[in-house]
Amino acid sequence: MIDIDKLGELDTQAKAIKTLLEKGKEEIKAQDKSELEGKTYVAKVQIRQSNKFNAEKALKVAKENDLQFLIKEAIDEDKLNDALISGEIDAGLFDGCVTTKETKAVTFKRKKK
User: Quick check: 64 and 52 in contact, CB under 8 A?
Assistant: First the structure.
């Protein structure tokens, strides 16, 4: 049998622990050290980089340098959405162009007494 009350309590505890952990990590990052030691654990700070491709800037560079072979046609989704909402174009034309994925989520909320 599923104990909803126990799961709800665990969810509440997990949120509190996560908040405390994130605050502690932020304090460690602010120390400007690569490593901090406790009695049992060592906290290591790593610098991670992520790159994001700036498609608009790359498109501008390609156009300015006459590199048309790098440019492909694409639908402006915002304009398409606006045209569909306004009724400017028939939505039936684009049937099958959108796929929908559903996922289930479980949340817990304490009952009001």
Answer: no
Closest CA to 61 of 71, 52, 51: 71
pTM: 0.59
At residue 20, the 3 state secondary structure works out as helix
Enter the tokens of residue 108: 């817990």
Taking only the tens of pLDDT, the chain with its 113 residues reads: 999 999 999 999 999 999 999 999 999 999 989 999 999 999 999 999 989 999 899 999 999 999 999 999 889 999 999 999 999 999 899 888 888 899 988 887 888 87
Which amino acid is residue 53, in one-letter code? F
* Cα–Cα distance for residue pair 103/113, rounded to 1 Å: 31
For the chain, which residues make up each domain, given as ranges?
Answer: 1-48, 50-94
